Amino acid sequence: MSQIITSVTKLLGIDLPIVQAGMSWASSDSALPLAVSRAGGLGVVAAGPMRIGDLTRTLDEMADGTGAPWAVNLPLYRTGADEVMDLLVERRPPVLIASQGGPRRYLRRFQDIGTTCLHVVAAPEHARKAVDAGVDGLVVVGAEAGGHPPPALVTTQVLVRAVRKAVPGTPLIASGGVADGYGLAAALALGAGAAQFGTRFLASAESAVHSDYKQAVVDAGVDGTKTVGRGLGLIRAISNDFTDRMIELEESGSDLELRRKAFQGGTLRDAALHGDLKGGKVEAGQSAGLVDDVLPAAEIVDRIVQEYADAVAQLQAVSADT
What is the pLDDT of residue 2? Predict the structure, then answer.
């Protein structure tokens, strides 16, 4: 297996600086995370929508299924987050990726059991606070990301550089707009030690979302997503009847409660599990425009590695010519 050694691969004990994003429903079981970890990256279980029994079974499958490192993503705002943390402390995942809350809530418990703790941030000031609290590394999410991009919509290229300057020496994972090995090379050039791939793995054979959802990702262009839900929890999703309705309400200055009702009327669950591509939240990043096929996760990893090598070779050729 190839190796690309960076600050993040050293921190996490993985061979490749390729992190599969924790995506609700898509990686809320063991299939996709196991495939990515076995291929040399970091597979991530999305605990956000999971019931305790389902999560317990998935954690056991991950532990039994690979000796390679893997992670659990936990949004700290989810109902029952404390119960989930109790379970995770008992099961001792190699890596925890936490978001939507402060790291002091969980950090000591997990570091005391040897779990590496990464925290998701979307601004330099949040990065400084997380590092001051003692996190082991950061996932820096830019505007291009699917799901929940930062409300300020600062691009990944700008945000990673700003965070790199704010917290020099801290291992960073760049997230948002990265779908191939060229994006990985760009992330490393910006100062990150790895890239997080969400939308690319959304369209994988092992992703647990509906086949129509995967096809919607493949069919989307680079301008095929919209951000909606301002003041309600901003999301980026593939354009459909749901996003059109939200944009209409937002642009007309409609009452917050009317917008809230419309926003809650479409769900990610309906899109992911039942293929509701019209009224559901078909969450995906701008990198959907770079995804042309549905492939096994291991093949996606292999392709990223080859593209990364091609990108580095091109840069070296430019350097040699000057």
Answer: 83
Chain centre distance of CA 61? 21
What was the pLDDT predicted at 152? Answer: 94
Helix (H) or strand (E) segment spanning residue 321: helix 297-321
Question: Residue 224 is encoded by which pair of tokens?
Answer: 């095929």
* 199, 288 contact by CB (below 8 A): yes
- Beta bridge partners, 117, equal 96
**Domains of the chain by start residue, with CATH:** 7-208+291-321 (3.20.20.70), 220-286 (no CATH)
The burial of 57, by beta-carbon neighbours within 10 Å (0-12 exposed, 13-18 middle, 19 or more buried), is given as middle
Average confidence (pLDDT) over 1-22: 95
* C-alpha–C-alpha distance, residues 72 and 177, integer Å: 22
Mean pLDDT for 235-262 is 96
Closest C-alpha to 13, from 140, 136, 176, 174: 136
How many residues are recorded in the chain?
Answer: 322
Residue 281 has pLDDT above 90, yes or no: yes
Q: How far is the C-alpha of 295 from the C-alpha of 5, rounded, in Å?
A: 25
Read off the pLDDT band of 227 (50, 70, 90).
very high
Cβ atoms of 23 and 235 closer than 8 Å: no
Please tell me the predicted confidence (pLDDT) of residue 243. 97
Residue 223 has pLDDT above 60, yes or no: yes
List all residues 6 or more positions away from 113 whose beta carbon is below 8 Å from its beta carbon: 89, 92
Sign of CA dihedral 299, 300, 305, 310: positive
Phi, psi of 309 (to 5 degrees): -60, -40
- Pick from 49, 88, 54: nearest CA to 71: 88
pTM of the model: 0.96
